[in-house]
Write a structure and sequence with these properties.
Structural class: mainly alpha
Oligomer: single chain
Shape: elongated
Mean pLDDT: 83
Number of strands: 0
Strand content: under 5%
Helix content: over 70%
Amino acid sequence: MSVGVRQGLVMAAAGILLGWVVIVLVRRQLLSLRYAIGWLLIAVAALIGAALSPVVKPLAEVLGMSPTGLLLGIASAVLLAITVQLSISVSGLRAQLREVAEAQALLEARQHVDAA
């Protein structure tokens, strides 16, 4: 078995495994669908890379990259997008938490004044 075929099989297995893990996490409600889409894109990219290695190789050569480098670049771009989205979500949650904490403090202060 050639190195290229083995790499294709490993990439296909990794894509299938990643896709399965993401689906399980979504079903158990441990991963939101919004983030699951990005992870599934990485799994699909691995499967496409494995299935279309004859197509990926010439495209990578045109870009001056190895096929593995091209697929890693695609996966990295998707991971970067997921990271940016998570950062935005965390920032929004912090702002909401601050508003709730301020409202709670005002409510407790008002109750303390009313009780006195």
